[in-house]
Amino acid sequence: MPAIIRSLREIGFVGPMRSDHVPQYEGEFEMEQGYSMLGRIFAFGYIRGLLQGTGK
Question: Which of 26, 30, 42, 51 falls between 20 and 30 A from 36, CA-CA?
Fold first, then answer.
Protein backbone atom coordinates (compact mmCIF):
# COMPACT_ATOMS: atom_id res chain seq x y z
CA MET A 1 0.00 0.00 0.00
CA PRO A 2 2.80 2.51 0.70
CA ALA A 3 4.20 1.85 -2.78
CA ILE A 4 0.78 2.51 -4.31
CA ILE A 5 0.44 5.82 -2.45
CA ARG A 6 3.95 6.87 -3.56
CA SER A 7 3.12 5.94 -7.17
CA LEU A 8 -0.09 7.97 -7.07
CA ARG A 9 1.87 10.95 -5.73
CA GLU A 10 4.50 10.56 -8.49
CA ILE A 11 1.89 10.81 -11.24
CA GLY A 12 0.15 13.74 -9.56
CA PHE A 13 -3.11 11.95 -8.71
CA VAL A 14 -5.52 14.26 -6.87
CA GLY A 15 -8.79 12.29 -7.02
CA PRO A 16 -10.83 10.58 -4.31
CA MET A 17 -9.77 7.41 -2.50
CA ARG A 18 -12.08 4.80 -1.01
CA SER A 19 -11.40 1.97 1.38
CA ASP A 20 -12.76 -1.40 0.34
CA HIS A 21 -13.03 -4.73 2.15
CA VAL A 22 -11.88 -3.45 5.53
CA PRO A 23 -10.94 -5.62 8.54
CA GLN A 24 -13.74 -6.90 10.75
CA TYR A 25 -13.32 -6.50 14.50
CA GLU A 26 -14.64 -8.47 17.45
CA GLY A 27 -18.27 -7.67 18.14
CA GLU A 28 -19.16 -6.53 14.62
CA PHE A 29 -20.94 -9.69 13.59
CA GLU A 30 -24.10 -7.87 12.49
CA MET A 31 -22.24 -6.11 9.65
CA GLU A 32 -21.58 -7.59 6.22
CA GLN A 33 -18.08 -9.01 6.28
CA GLY A 34 -15.52 -6.59 4.85
CA TYR A 35 -17.70 -3.50 5.37
CA SER A 36 -17.80 -3.02 9.14
CA MET A 37 -17.81 0.44 10.72
CA LEU A 38 -14.82 -0.06 13.05
CA GLY A 39 -12.85 -1.59 10.17
CA ARG A 40 -13.70 1.38 7.97
CA ILE A 41 -12.53 3.81 10.69
CA PHE A 42 -9.27 1.84 10.93
CA ALA A 43 -8.83 1.93 7.14
CA PHE A 44 -9.37 5.71 6.98
CA GLY A 45 -6.72 6.18 9.68
CA TYR A 46 -4.33 3.84 7.87
CA ILE A 47 -4.76 5.68 4.56
CA ARG A 48 -4.36 9.05 6.27
CA GLY A 49 -1.16 7.84 7.93
CA LEU A 50 0.17 6.63 4.58
CA LEU A 51 -0.61 9.99 2.99
CA GLN A 52 1.18 11.82 5.80
CA GLY A 53 4.11 9.42 5.80
CA THR A 54 4.80 9.45 2.07
CA GLY A 55 5.32 13.16 1.54
CA LYS A 56 3.73 16.53 0.86
Answer: 51
pTM of the model as a whole: 0.76
What value, to the nearest 5°, has the Cα angle with vertex 5 and ends 31 and 17? 45
Quick: pLDDT tens for 45-56: 999 999 999 875
Please name which of 19, 4, 17, 11 lies closest in space to residue 53, comparing C-alpha atoms.
4
Mapped to the 3 state alphabet, what secondary structure does 8-51 carry? HHHCCCCCCCCCCCCCCCCCCCCCCCCCCHHHHHHHHHHHHHHH
Q: What is the CA radius of gyration of the chain?
A: 13
